[in-house]
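REQUEST ID: PR-0412
SUBMITTED BY: lab tech R.K.
PRIORITY: routine
TASK: structure prediction, single protein chain
INPUT:
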Amino acid sequence: GLGNVIDHVDAAKANLKDKKYLEELHMVFDGGREEMDDSIVESTVSVLEALEPNSNLKKLNIENYNGDNFPNWLRDCHLPNLVSLKLKRCRLCSQLPPFGQLPCLKYLSISHCDGIKIIGEEFYDSNSTSLSFRSLEVLEFYGMDNWEELSCLEGFPLLKE
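STATUS: complete
OUTPUT:
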């Protein structure tokens, strides 16, 4: 896991952005359900921001992340070759990045992300002119206890399940 990473400076030393042959990355944070103050949440966000992978990455799993938002590199879709993405127990994040614009994404699984109440247009990136989720074949949501609404079901030309 990421228990040995102390802060964003430590995380930056991993230099993941320059590891162009890295195709699969599993990030498991130590985050449990315990109370966390704002400085710990902020530190967690900066650690994940510093762990930006190379754009050649094909598979990404993020688990037990206790930041309150996803890193810029995930929100800005800097992973054009990503084929598989799993988010599990990212409990404090309230909004999903615009995954609809990841051109190669075939598998997306989002589970136990309790901060998500509404999945809206930002998930699809409605500002874009290209078709949302143009490669997605499998979409999974489960254990989303606070999820209330899914809007704008557009795109998904290849969705199978």
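NOTES: The two ends are 30 Å apart (CA to CA).
REVIEWED BY: pending
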